[in-house]
């Protein structure tokens, strides 16, 4: 089962990387852009009996390792396309 | 207009960060996970007259700055919810 986990910074947490990119875009002439925020996207395959079980496991992984929940949120998207394509 | 740009590594490009995370997940007891790949997700607001124009601008930004097209792909998702919510 394919899982896509988005790990954005929480609202209100300063994003210097995003600010730098925004500034660089401005220097390149893209002045119509604002509020640039940069997060992680983690894609993985997980072996689980059901979507519910996979989601439970992935939540644990996010809490323990994938996201720093002090400053980051996480959002889990499950896609069983790969499973049905077997 | 809100834009979400996903920048994953191209297939075949080695992902040491993903490998490290996969290994760490294994150490934590999550042995049912494979093929971990880590990419960027960029969220920004863009001022454009139409979705088509915004997509054109964003494609340019990806080619020039946001993605390293030698090793990374990019995917642009546009969401005009913010526009209609004004």
From TrEMBL, chains A, B:
Catalyzed chemical reaction(s): N(2)-formyl-N(1)-(5-phospho-beta-D-ribosyl)glycinamide + L-glutamine + ATP + H2O = 2-formamido-N(1)-(5-O-phospho-beta-D-ribosyl)acetamidine + L-glutamate + ADP + phosphate + H(+)
One Pfam family it belongs to: PurS
Known role: Part of the phosphoribosylformylglycinamidine synthase complex involved in the purines biosynthetic pathway. Catalyzes the ATP-dependent conversion of formylglycinamide ribonucleotide (FGAR) and glutamine to yield formylglycinamidine ribonucleotide (FGAM) and glutamate. The FGAM synthase complex is composed of three subunits. PurQ produces an ammonia molecule by converting glutamine to glutamate. PurL transfers the ammonia molecule to FGAR to form FGAM in an ATP-dependent manner.
GO molecular function ontology, one term from the record: phosphoribosylformylglycinamidine synthase activity
Pathway per the UniProt entry: Purine metabolism; IMP biosynthesis via de novo pathway; 5-amino-1-(5-phospho-D-ribosyl)imidazole from N(2)-formyl-N(1)-(5-phospho-D-ribosyl)glycinamide: step 1/2
Family: Belongs to the PurS family.
Lineage summary: Bacteria, Pseudomonadati, Campylobacterota, Epsilonproteobacteria, Campylobacterales
Primary location group: cytoplasm
Localization (cell): Cytoplasm
Name used for this protein in its record: Phosphoribosylformylglycinamidine synthase subunit PurS
NCBIfam families, per the entry: phosphoribosylformylglycinamidine synthase subunit PurS (TIGR00302), PRK05974.1 (NF004630)
This enzyme's EC code(s): 6.3.5.3
A GO CC annotation given for this chain: cytoplasm
Main enzyme class: ligase
One GO process term, biological-process aspect: 'de novo' IMP biosynthetic process
Quaternary structure (record): Part of the FGAM synthase complex composed of 1 PurL, 1 PurQ and 2 PurS subunits.
